[in-house]
Amino acid sequence: MASVPIPSPSPSPNPTTIRATVVQAASVFYDTPATLDKAERLVAEAASNGAQLVVFPEAFVGGYPRGSIFGATIGHFTPTAGEQFRKYYDSAIDVPGPEMDRLASIAENCKVYLVMGVIEREGYTLYCTVVFFDPQGCYLGKRRKLMPTTAERLVWGFGDGSTTPVFDTPIGKLGAVICWENKMPLLRTAMYAKGIEIYCAPNSDDREVWQPTVRHIAIEGGVFVLSAGQFCLRKDYPPPPEYLLTEWEDELQPDSVVAAGGSVIVAPSGEVLAGPNFEGEGLLTADLDLKDVARAKFSFDAVGHYSRPDILSLIVNERAMKPVSFTSHK
Fold first, then answer.
1. Interatomic CA distance for residues 296 and 68, integer angstroms
2. Which end of the chain is more exposed for a tag (fewer CB within 10 A), N or C?
3. Element at 173 (helix H, strand E)
4. Where are the beta strands (DSSP E) in 30-91?
5. pTM, 2 dp
């Protein structure tokens, strides 16, 4: 795998400073075992550079179906639509399941906190999910995307408030908001209220306008933002007709860039610590001084001294929303 060489800072003796790495890489589409092998290599590379936290892009395991419409238009499905979904479904993972065990082993063997974007299946519904592991290989929990964007709703279900965790870990308070959910002001506010300090933003938006979005979040929340995106070439997806990037396909060559990444690490001040990378696959690494969170909150605390709960307030429903509930009269 060709990677972009990105210089990394020297380790800091400050015990409040942790080293974080954002991975920018493509999945092996329709091949989950190969994707897990690639993830293991990338985590090991990050760990060899001293990373304590490694963050992967949205839908890394299972794949982001860029450009696909799954044979569906309003009021119509093509004869191959169900088979397209079946292949994507087979690439998804169960939580828990054997692929989760593999990810736990990777985290344990490399002694890192691992934040991984996956496509989760429950029954026959898929969810865009982020899963969290600690350096002992313990599964901490998951974060399901609340709001799939545009055509993502063809194939992904909707998460609920029961999977919006912030984990209080020895390296800081850790959570994730996925892709365009980061544009949802009330969701961001809820995460700030939970005390998030290391705000992971796995995403698939490779546009330049994503950069001011994540810098604003860092300033607004007084948080470190770790935005991880995939860098993909056309040849990272199966060739046509097995897989079509609708409306693009006629213009593309095997080496055409179809997702340019744009991964970045931003400090609570809004300063860019690493990236953005629009050049290729690679690792972005930065040392995060958690004391910078308090320094930023001095001037602006969105859910503290700069809030006005007498005028503006937010209620968050954290109940799991099940379509069917069973009761017993025994």
1. 42
2. C
3. strand 172-176
4. 53-55, 72-73, 76-77
5. 0.93
Element (H, E) at 38: helix 32-48
Q: What angle do CA 85, 139, 50 make, to 5 degrees?
A: 105
Residue 298: which residues within 8 A CB-CB, separation 6 or more? none
Higher-confidence residue of 11 and 244: namely 244
The CA distances from residue 97 to 100, 124, 125, 187, in Å, are 5, 15, 16, 29
Average pLDDT for the chain? 93
Q: Give the per-residue pLDDT at 88.
A: 96
Name the region of 35 (left: φ>0; alpha: ψ -120 to 50; beta: rest). Answer: alpha
* 45 in catalytic set: no
Confidence of residue 14 (pLDDT cuts 50, 70, 90): low
Which amino acid, one-letter code, is at 301?
A: D
**What is the Cα–Cα distance from 3 to 279, expressed in whole angstroms?**
9
Q: Which residue has the higher pLDDT, 328 or 234?
A: 234
Structure tokens at 203: 């995403």
- Furthest C-alpha separation in the chain: 65
Residue 176, CB half-sphere, CA atoms under 13 Å: how many? 31
Range with lowest mean pLDDT among 51-60, 106-115, 232-241? 232-241
19 to 235, 262, 285: CA distances (angstroms): 33, 20, 7
CB 93 within 8 A of CB 61: yes
* Helix, strand, coil content of the chain in percent (nearest 5): 25, 25, 45
Residue type, 242: E
Residue among 40, 45, 58, 181 flagged as catalytic: 58
Q: Are strands 198-203 and 272-277 parallel, antiparallel or unpaired?
A: unpaired
